[in-house]
Write a structure and sequence with these properties.
By secondary structure, this protein is mainly α. The chain contains 6 helices and 2 strands, in the order αααββααα. The chain has 2 domains: about 60 residues, Arc Repressor Mutant, subunit A, CATH 1.10.10.10; about 60 residues. Strands 1-2 form a two-stranded antiparallel sheet. α2 crosses α3.
Length: about 120
Amino acid sequence: MAVMEYVWATRSCDVKTVHRAVGAPRQITSNTVQSTLERLYRKGMLAREKVSHAYVYSAVRSREQVTATVVSDVVERLVQGKTDAMLAAFVDVAARAGDSTLARLEKLISKRRSQDSKRKK
């Protein structure tokens, strides 16, 4: 995520700049940063373009899209088809964030139901 955050902030970057900003302070090797960028590219999260002797990477997916994918993957692994506890926890988190967050959650649920009913028609 730190690499993605850096790419989103800079719009485009190469391995050396990512390593200087993200890898070196964490004592992560340039090779590790390079392989991380390569994996993100293969997963379709980054695009790359050959400039001179190096690849320049840019984000293909937004922060919101990546966050949704990560949360979805984690939830699927944790709940294994048993959603009651996950839904209760999600509502509790929204409630602790305040009434406006609960209201946004209700609107999102309503919007999804409306979209789903339109698709069924």
